[in-house]
Amino acid sequence: MRCPNCKRQTTWKGNPYRPFCSERCKLIDLHNWLSERYRISTPVETREEGGQTPVAEPGAKGERD
After folding, report:
1. What is the CATH number of domain 1-40?
2. Which end of the chain has fewer CB atoms within 10 angstroms, the N or the C?
3. Contact 17/23 with Cβ under 8 angstroms?
4. Backbone φ and ψ of 9, nearest 5°
C-alpha cells in the first residue's frame, strides 16, 4: 500500500504509523486537519422534519436589510 501523504510504498503489518509510512507523515496529516486544510462537507441545504425547507424569519440574525 502507499502512504496517503508522500505516496511512498509502505507495509500495513508491523507498521505502528499505518496507514502512513512514518511518524513524520502521520504528523503532517494531523497538522492539516488541525489547521482546517481538510474539511468534512455538509449538504448545502438541510431540511427539517416534515420535508419543509427552513425559512429565515424577518429580523433573524444574518439577514440583510
Report:
1. 3.30.50.10
2. C
3. yes
4. -70, 135
Q: What is the pLDDT of residue 56?
A: 59
What pLDDT was estimated at residue 2?
A: 94
Q: In angstroms, how far is CA 61 from the centroid of its own chain?
A: 27
Q: How far apart are CA 43 and CA 46, in angstroms?
A: 6
DSSP state of 59: T
- β-sheet bridge partners, residue 9: 2
Task: Give the pLDDT confidence score for residue 65 in this predicted structure.
Answer: 45
Q: Alpha-carbon distance 55 to 16, whole Å?
A: 50
| Reported pTM | 0.57
Distance in angstroms (rounded) separating the CA atoms of residues 25 and 21: 7
One-character DSSP codes across 5-32: TT--B--STT-TTTTSSSHHHHHHHHHH
